[in-house]
Amino acid sequence: MTADSEALALERFMTARLDEAEAAAKAVLAIGEDDPRVGVHGQWNAYIEGGDDGWAIEDAAGNGGFIVGEHAFAAHIALNDPVTALRSIAADRRLLAELARCEGDPGWDSALMLAARCRATAWDTHPDYLDRWKP
Amino acid sequence: MGSVDILDPPADDIAAFITARADELEAAAKAATPGPWTSGGGPYVGAKGHGIIVQARYVEDATHITLNDPDCALGLVRFMRAIADAVSEPAPAGVLGGHDDYGRGCADGAMSATRAAALWLAEIWDSHPDFKAAWKP
Question: What is the ipTM of this complex?
């Protein structure tokens, strides 16, 4: 496989994963688009519930989303809210776009290909991931 | 504030910023139960050994949370640390193409690309108080 086709295969794999994550994040943000009282919008915060349910997730406007229970789960979920996920996806797409654009540019292509391979390890248990992409 | 070449930010600053965000993400992900988390198509998220850990109101919330479980976060953390390390420690001369002008050009190009990738990454947290406006691409 040539370096170009390898880059294309990796780009397709990563794009498919990013498409999935983007669709999921956008689906959350679409909840209650016409009614801000419905769903949790914007960035999420973990907060302690007044009742016996422990921790939960709310947005900046104080809309309560759902029960999480343990603080460790709530803190992780809040740090990985849909807004932050979409920003991360945008950074990944920028990396892939520049990788395609810089083909044949000494230094840039090898560095961005290595960066893309590092990033792709996040999905290394996916059945479509190829072991030869490991950095 | 003086102007800063977006391809030449002070490496230590942006590496430290990315590393700090990676530390936060990693600490939270490692404190939570390892993935994979599962939703089973309902408004719940389950984790092995913990049963249901999230009672969401909507299936969409559960799907998003499942796709962003601790394993996924730790994958991003690995990438962030690789970029922070690479931008802090340039590859030794000759690694990418010899010690001639071409080799030096490759090394310079690789460092510019790595710095650019660091900027794209840092921009995820551009509302963080430690994010510097000069890093905005």
Answer: 0.89
